[in-house]
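Subject: Trehalase

B.,
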Amino acid sequence: MAGRIEDYALIGDMQTAALVCRDGTADWLCLPRFDSQAAFAGLLGTEEHGFWRIGPAHPSGAAPPHADRRRYRGDSLVLESEWDTPRGTVRIIDFMPPRDGAPQLIRIVEGVTGRVPMRSALRMRFSYGRVVPWVHKVGDRTVAVAGPDSVWLDTTADTFGMDLTTYSDFTVSPGERVAFTISWQPSHREAPALPDPEGALEATEDFWREWVSHCTYHGPYRDAVVRSLITLKALTYAPTGGIVAAPTTSLPEEIGGVRNWDYRYTWLRDAAITLSSLLRTGYREEARAWREWLLRAVAGDPENLQIMYGIAGERELGEAELPWLPGYENSLPVRVGNGAAGQLQLDVYGEVTEALHLAHMTGLARNDYASLLQLRLIGYLEDHWTEPDEGIWEVRGPRRHFVHSKVMAWVAVDRTIKLIESGDVDGPLERWRELRDDIHRDVCEKGYDKERNTFTQYYGSKELDASLLLIPQMGFLPPDDKRVIGTIEAIQRELSTEDGFVLRYPTAGHEAGVDGLEGDEGAFLACSFWLADDLAMIGRVEEARQLFEKLLGLRNDLGLLAEEWDSRLQRQVGNFPQAFSHVPLIDTALRLTASTAFGG
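Prediction pasted inline below.
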């Protein structure tokens, strides 16, 4: 049985990632890319669907013991887990070296005290747990082959096969190290090179140490910010610069519910706000790579702009269900692909334009095509901003005139006007100034409830939506505007959980609500960070700081956050770890640090 979502650690090589539980089990790994079919899918099923456990030997039928301690080695993605057993203490070092050839997952077992009996159990299952591979020996190496995939196991420990699983039983003494490596290779290719686990460990630590050294943030929340930055880097697909929203699919937003989606793709919205955080903390190369990814993915075609793409810019992300997987804690269906790729979400134009504007303002090397794309995006919005859409939350109900979508359309026009005013490009300045005023007037007239002094989820609605918290952050209205303050207070009052975190919008329980789905969901962590930002902006800095530090307390012991927090069950829910949670963590830390510096 899979662990709680917060029981997992992330390791990765910036092309794919594995999740390792506290008991030493790797329950999730897609090879060779984030969006490839999983070779370990136990996270969404049972051990029959693939896993790799290394840990102290334990009685048959008993649950494997959890590590007594675990941590990342300094500011890196190298995981250390330690078990104290009656026979001594043992350490396991898990990591995936930045790729130079075949993708590898390396696990080094190190004796600390005493003599500790250990067991490795490796059960490869390709195609999300559906395909049992042919496992055989090639010299001293073990290889699992099925269709286009092969995974090679290399270790100095003796191995044996039983129950369609590869085992190794061994004992470690103080200072003794036993390494295990699996390497993926297309099955038609020759065997991958023999691994060098110790050399790879040193190179991996050096890589992360050097990368973190470029961080320009040195405020009071540095540890949390750096861990979030490392997580965002781990979610970046190095060959293209695309950033996945999360490395997982179908981790539920409600345990046992149907809100289970595939997040192993690049959302323009998520990636754009990620670019903002990277630029503000000194990571210009990652920001440049993302801009180049964007230009390739959109390819000058704003009329067919998608809200998300594959990590190399793929457009076809057809959604399907995997009926052989029982789902995480019986949360069905398990989905791969994402049908929301074909939705109209007008806010994306604003997020992309804001990201390009920020890149321009921070001195990222000019790209004329990026400026041309920005102009074409506004040309499209000029004709389409009055249309209803599916909005930021990708509702699967009817299209509506979502207020946040209109606000972000205003942002897109406003930032493009600023680009033209800077003299770097030419455009119909007066016409677009009128357009900006028209959108602003439309939102304030149709999206604002005068009686309650709050903006609403969509035109004509009485409901609230946490995306309205972005109104002052985007500069649509100043923070001290009574309508802004009224909206913040209404969201605090009506969309907060008992423990003070923020829901995206009201859900309908057993009925199909505005999003077209049954069931409920947890508090959305990004929205909770947005509330902290807004509180700081309207001068309630201490209240903002308290909420922020409460949010930091929701992270697991390794500093990682999923998409949501279930206040009833007191546990993380949704795909994990989630870029859209770690980015606003960074942004709020920066804002609070600045507020403190200026006496806020």
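Residues 403-421 form the longest helix (19 residues).

T.
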